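Build the 3D complex.
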Amino acid sequence: MRSEQEINDVIERYADTVCRLCTIYLKNYADTEDIFQTVFLKYALCSVAFESEEHRKAWIIRVTVNACKDLLKSFFHSRTVPLQQLPEMAVSMPSDHREVLDAVLSLPKKYKDVVYLHYYEGYTAPQISRILGKNVNTVYTLLTRSKQLLKEKLGGEEHV
Amino acid sequence: MYDRIRSAFDAIHAEPALKDQVKNDVLQRIRQRQARQRRVRAVAVAACLLLISIVGGGWIYLTPTAKISIDINPSIELGVNRFDRVVSAEGLNEDGDKVLESLSLRFMDYDEAVAEILESESVSTLLSQDEVLTIGVTGEKNEQCERMLSSLSSCAEREENAHCYYADEEAMETARELGLSYGQYRAFLELQAFNPEVTPEDVKGVSVREIREWIADLSGGGDTSENQGHGHGHHYGQNGKNS
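Done.
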């Protein structure tokens, strides 16, 4: 079991990351709260010795992704709202950000986490394949396809 | 594209209220868990202590701190715990086993147990036949042994041919190694003083009374023969005078 100080530090450091992943997967605030509880409690109780901060971050991302998927699986029919609806927190965003987020979130489910991990977190395809437990070639294909989709949505004039 | 996506996601932050709530909830759960673990640990420690005290108590109760060795022909050894209770009864020969078969001495007070043995059919028969009974108390020389010795001595005084003594453990062990009961061993040592050629083998299976008679023959016997010699001499002299 980890110390209170360690738990507080990790929540401060990774709350935004978890929140962004929740934005990708989930559509309502109550679920985000659930995921926060699940992820950070799991962190508090786990006895994994992290070799580096990168290792810790990858662990948090993997646990968050799995927690979100589990939540969607168990409450899929009753709890999800249409994909096009942006989370409440995005309402107050500048229009450009909203447009981009809208584009990313409207992508089919399988592209969204790959796009986030690659474009925002800067992970390479092999790293993403390890985090998500997917085949590297599948990740490459997903990235290529998602680039095309985003280009279509956000305007083909941008260099992707 | 990278920059746009990055700044769009950058704009998403976890609300401080959410962070605080998660911190509180997680820490509360952790504390509850720790408290539960502490409780479980406390219960486990208490259970261990209880187990230790039961085992330890049992061990203390069941460990003999003194031994009573009773010899007539049946040889019996009683283990007595620190609470003066008999915790083991062992026959050192077949006759001893036979006597014990008919008695249930475990957890009885040692004096009652000794009384039961003395009253048992085979022992009381032997006593009535003038067999010599020895009661040996073995153990560290402490208050318990002294108390037992004095109690058993008064018990032995009631019988004509009963002797009660303190037996040291080393001698007891030697006796056992030689295959003799302590009573036999003591008698054997006395006998050996008169006749150094006697071996333990010679006294095996011989009752204490017989060894004592043997000693009496040798010591008293020596005296007797001398007396007899004198007597005879005297007698002859007298006879000579008379004749």
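The mean pLDDT of chain B is 81.
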